[in-house]
Amino acid sequence: MLLELRQVTKRFVDRGGDFTAVRDVTLSLGEDEIFALIGESGSGKSTLAEMVVGLQQPTEGSIHWQGEAPGQAASRPHVQIVFQNPDRSMNPYWKVRDIVAEPLILRKTGRAEAWKRAGDLLEQVRLPRELLDRRPDECSGGQKQRIAIARALSMTPKLLIADEITSALDPGTEREMLALLQTLKRKHRMAVLYITHRLETIAGFADRIAVMKDGAVVETGHTASVLSQPQSSYTRALLAACSYA
Ligand SMILES: Nc1ncnc2c1ncn2[C@@H]1O[C@H](COP(=O)(O)OP(=O)(O)OP(=O)(O)O)[C@@H](O)[C@H]1O
Ligand SMILES: [Mg+2]
């Protein structure tokens, strides 16, 4: 297994008291699988993802990476995250070339080489090289998400986390994005943790899924079997709500 979460809980404490955002979650991800994390808004998906990347620490439980001692505070270029809102992670004044090349330059790749790689990476996410000279506001939402994926790929991740990256896209663009992720997964031999509140999008895409509700995983399994024979009443309600047939 690439990654294992063992009884991971995250509590936030503020003036209003305690709030448990993630509750006793145990999950594992294989080396080149697409794993979908499904749940409605506020169910704890992003908090879970942030713990996997190391942006947040679990209050209880532990996260184990293959070949890494538990709790080792390593920087993890091998896990990359792409967010719902690409503007959150892009400097609006930079050209796409510099946005994609930035992680490479930070890791001491020469500028000329990093720019060349930026062009290659755009091609991998099926964007024209002409985009290199544009700024983010001259790109569409779907293009910006591809740019964010290209930048993440520059670190040759073993795990790519996509946190609601298609939520702002139209259905056609969303389908293209899922197909692209499948291609990239095979090509780069990486795992994908795909986070969405839209259960209806993941048939034929994700290998396995986990359904979250109020911070806890209520169901997990192979996508086809969860969709055809959901065990939890909550999953059944989600399926009914999106009239999945
Ligand atoms: N830093 C924080 N302090 C306090 N509460 C937090 C913090 N971060 C998240 N929460 C709470 O934890 C819960 C889960 O939030 P999270 O962002 O993980 O949900 P989500 O499933 O990603 O939702 P969405 O689909 O809307 O992105 C929410 O109720 C949120 O308000
Ligand atoms: Mg979220």
UniProtKB/TrEMBL annotation:
The keyword ATP-binding applies. CDD domains: ABC_NikE_OppD_transporters. Keywords: ATP-binding, Nucleotide-binding, Transport. It holds the Pfam family ABC_tran. One of its GO terms (molecular function) is ATP hydrolysis activity. GO terms for biological process: transmembrane transport. The keyword Nuclease does not apply. Residues 3-239 form the ABC transporter domain. It comes from the Bacteria. This is Oligopeptide transport ATP-binding protein OppF. It comes from Paenibacillus solanacearum. The gene is oppF_3.
